[in-house]
TrEMBL record:
Protein name from the UniProt record: SNARE-associated protein Snapin
Molecular function, one GO term: SNARE binding
Compartment list: Cytoplasmic vesicle, Secretory vesicle, Synaptic vesicle membrane
Sorted UniProt keywords: Coiled coil, Cytoplasm, Cytoplasmic vesicle, Membrane, Synapse
Family: Belongs to the SNAPIN family.
Lineage: Eukaryota, Metazoa, Chordata, Craniata, Vertebrata
Length: 136
């Protein structure tokens, strides 16, 4: 019986190209995680879109408050509220930047995983293994 991580041997004693247990585990794990990564990516994208909309609404509200403040005959001090809105906008932009960076890292990781998976599949299909590989 062949150990996991070693190449199978034919009846003539020659190695038969086949995936190792480690390769199968890695590929299975990647396929298991791929839907979660894609779902997370779509949720991050939706949050980023909603934050852009929120930022636009804050900008509109701040502009409107400034206009109202200028048009009022009675002095209303709306400056603290405008400052609070601008502070909230700054925080929304900060969170959006953090999400954008996380999404970019996730995209690069997904690309690297797909590239490595394709490379391993090509190696398995061709029967060519890198030096030091346990599949020799």
């Amino acid at each position: 019986m062949a150990r996991a991580g070693s190449a199978a041997v034919s009846g003539a004693g020659t190695p038969v190209a086949g995936p190792t247990g480690r390769d199968l585990f890695a590929e299975g794990l990647l396929e298991f995680l791929r839907p979660a990564v894609l779902q997370l990516d779509s949720h991050v994208h939706a949050v980023r879109e909603s934050q852009v909309e929120l930022r636009e609404q804050i900008d509109n509200l701040a502009t409107e408050l400034c206009r109202i403040n200028e048009d009022q005959k009675v002095a209303l001090d709306l400056d603290p509220y405008v400052k609070k809105l601008l502070n909230a906008r700054r925080r929304v932009v900060l969170v959006n930047n953090i999400l954008q960076n996380a999404q970019e890292r996730l995209r690069r990781l997904n690309h690297s995983v797909a590239k490595e998976t394709a490379r391993r599949r090509a190696m398995l299909d061709s029967g060519v293994y890198p030096p030091g590989s346990p599949s020799k």
